[in-house]
């Protein structure tokens, strides 16, 4: 498998609505494995396929801490089917918006369905950090970044910083 390049905002691929996966096959399994390796190396707790330039509805998530064994979720065509009326705020960051953070309010708990790496339909209930992370990654699949949930002023400041980072990298 391979460590993939992570796309940095404001790259337009991050605003694309990703296509559903028709079949969980070897190509998708290889993508999931490479995405996990990339996420762990970064290090991060979630990664959507569009963040590595692939516009398919695929995410990987692992909110286990450093003291415990990895507990990865590989999700194909994830879909939230219910969300709680109760909300919580987490300071979110994103591998595609390096070193940028903001408080984002999201439903505290969710129910969802997805296909695992074998193509089996899974139903999952999640709360706390896992629920927040899954919602963040599913947002990516719909072309939504965590900064789209904050004030226009704060979002503008963050995106301006990222444009400078990208320009500096390209200048080289």
Entry summary:
The chain is an alpha+beta fold and 172 residues long. It is 29% helix and 30% strand.
What does this structure look like?
- The protein has 172 residues and is α+β, with helices and mostly antiparallel strands.
- Helix content is 29%, strand content 30%.
- The protein has three helices and seven strands.
- The protein has helices spanning 26-41, 128-141, 152-171; strands spanning 46-48, 58-61, 73-83, 87-94, 97-107, 109-115, 121-127.
- The strands form two sheets. It has a five-stranded antiparallel beta sheet. A two-stranded antiparallel ribbon has the order 4-5.
- A hairpin with a 5-residue loop joins strand 6 (109-115) and strand 7 (121-127).
- It is globular and about 45 Å long.
- The two termini are 28 Å apart.
- The mean pLDDT is 96.
Helix and strand arrangement:
Elements: H1 26-41, E1 46-48, E2 58-61, E3 73-83, E4 87-94, E5 97-107, E6 109-115, E7 121-127, H2 128-141, H3 152-171
Antiparallel strand pairs: 1-2, 2-3, 3-6, 4-5, 6-7
Structural class: alpha+beta
Anisotropy-based shape: globular
Could you give the order of strands across the largest sheet?
Answer: 1-2-3-6-7
Low-confidence regions? none
**Share of helical residues:** 25-40%
Proportion of beta-strand residues: 25-35%
Instruction: Give me the number of helical elements.
Output: 3
Distance between the termini: 28 Å
Q: Return the average pLDDT rounded to an integer.
A: 96
Number of strands: 7
Element order: H for helix, E for strand: HEEEEEEEHH
- Please describe the biggest sheet, giving its number of strands, its sense, and whether it closes into a barrel: 5 strands, antiparallel
Spatial extent as radius of gyration: 16 Å
């Amino acid at each position: 498998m391979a460590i993939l390049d992570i796309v940095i905002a404001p790259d337009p691929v991050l605003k694309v609505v990703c296509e559903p996966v028709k079949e969980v096959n070897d190509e998708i399994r290889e993508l999931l494995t490479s995405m996990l390796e990339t996420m762990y190396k970064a290090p991060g707790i979630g990664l959507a396929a569009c963040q590595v330039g692939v516009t398919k509805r695929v995410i990987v998530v692992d909110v286990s801490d450093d003291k415990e064994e990895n507990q990865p979720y590989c999700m194909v065509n994830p879909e939230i089917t219910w969300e709680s009326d109760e909300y919580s705020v987490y300071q979110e960051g994103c591998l595609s918006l390096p070193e940028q953070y903001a408080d984002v309010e999201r439903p505290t708990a969710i129910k969802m369905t997805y296909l695992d790496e074998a193509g089996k339909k899974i139903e999952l209930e999640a709360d706390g950090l896992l629920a927040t992370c899954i919602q963040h990654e599913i947002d990516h699949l719909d072309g939504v970044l965590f900064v789209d949930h904050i004030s226009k002023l704060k979002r503008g400041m963050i995106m301006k910083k990222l444009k400078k980072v990208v320009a500096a990298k390209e200048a080289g």
